Amino acid sequence: MVVIGGGTGLPVILNALKDKNAEITAIVTVSDDGGSSGSIRNFINVVPPGDIRNVLVSLSDISQEEKNVFQYRFDSSDSFFSGHAIGNLIIAALNEMHGNIFDAVQSLSKMMRVDGHVFPASNEPLTLNAEFVDGTTEVGETEITSKDKRIKRVWVTDTNSGAKPTAVLPVLAAIMQADAVVLGPGSLFTSILPNLMIPNLGEAVRKTSAEVIYICNIMTQRGETDHFSDAEHVQVINNHLGGHYINTALVNGAKIDMSKFHPEDYDAYLEPVRNDFAGLRKQDCRVITDDFIDQHSGLVFHDGKKVAREIINLALEAMSRRRMTDE
Hints:
It is found in: Cytoplasm. The chain is of the alpha/beta class. It has helices spanning 9-19, 35-44, 50-59, 64-71, 86-98, 101-111, 141-146, 169-177, 188-196, 199-207, 230-241, 277-281, 304-326, and strands spanning 2-5, 25-28, 117-120, 126-132, 137-139, 151-158, 180-183, 211-215, 219-221, 248-252, 269-272, 286-290, 293-296, 299-302.
């Protein structure tokens, strides 16, 4: 199966699928321009490594101590390396050694004994562009989300040339051969759609016979999905793809215990995503709802085991349909 996205939610799902012995290909966003990733990108013109780093760790079979070293972020008192994660620096170094990010990540995957495949969505750094509902436009993920305006559409361009980007052939082959293509969880406009807006990658998602599954976010996100329902999340993806291409949506139906909620840890989030089952069905989207919440220490995550179980079942159904068609 193929999982497409970025951000902190993706490793949770990948970890759970790995425990199910699924054959996984993770296709990772390369348009982030913030934090350590953005800083490295600005200095040495490399694809942002942060999401790639986290995905590599989630699928790696190296020891926990080795993972901790790879994930270590230098303290702010270390002025030269302040805020940088060691893994980001290693990815940047391998990118220079190999001359491209795709080969760099494949090399590092072998070193880290990754169980599956990790593919950057593009071999070149991408710039995210957005048009807001009021007709204005903005460039760059950080600038777009800071405007606090409703986004109408997004697209990506090659950061160096300004041209339309492309995904490499292994990315396209993985999507076409998959039994399930999973979108999310992650920021709708800045982690999921940047991948789908790579023209040949989006076309592969439209054409694949795999079950296309969307894992809807639990919380709305400030500057991106303010007050969105689950149906509005799906509608935005379908609008960008140009049709009803989401086959199944996994949506949380359980109430969040707000007494355990720490606002200071979630200043970017607003409220639980509203359920709109009628709106989902109007988009020809099957709905699977459950208590998909894993809430601990005041943080809200998806319950990876429950989500992985549903994904596996959907993938098996798609595999059976494929075999019947082939016969």
